[in-house]
Design brief:
CATH architecture: Orthogonal Bundle
Number of domains: 1
Number of strands: 3
Order of helices and strands: HEHHEEH
Shape: elongated
Oligomer: single chain
Strand content: 15-25%
Helix content: 55-70%
Distance between the termini: 29 Å
Structural class: alpha+beta
CATH class: Mainly Alpha
Largest sheet: 3 strands, antiparallel
Length: 106
């Protein structure tokens, strides 16, 4: 079963991955694909949007005669990641409550 996941959760996943270590696009794609169904062509616009919002910066590094573009999280990106994590925990608790038969009023 596949649940439709929104862009905020995709942003959170990308920022969380890059927060652990800088990553290049292909590597990022595979790490995100481990948790959600996403194509490489879908991820690159997300990376550009996060970069435009100053949540990520890039740098190039030589690898086997070519340059790889690495993505690195910024301080603004870390702040955004914390905001997204807080939102995720609230959302997850509400979904768990519905799915597991809890009370949403409490």
């Amino acid at each position: 079963m596949t649940f439709q996941l929104g862009s905020a959760l995709l942003d959170a996943c990308v920022l969380a991955i890059v927060d652990k270590e800088d990553a290049y696009g292909y590597s990022l794609t595979h790490q995100v694909q481990a948790v959600m169904d996403i194509s490489e062509s879908t991820l690159y616009p997300v990376l550009r949007r996060l970069q435009k919002a100053n949540y990520l910066i890039t740098y190039d590094q030589p690898f086997q005669g070519r340059n790889r573009r690495y993505y690195q999280i910024t301080e603004q990106g870390r702040v955004r990641l914390l905001e997204l994590l807080k939102e995720w925990h609230v959302y997850k608790e509400k979904i768990d409550c519905v799915l597991l038969g809890g009370n949403l009023d409490g």
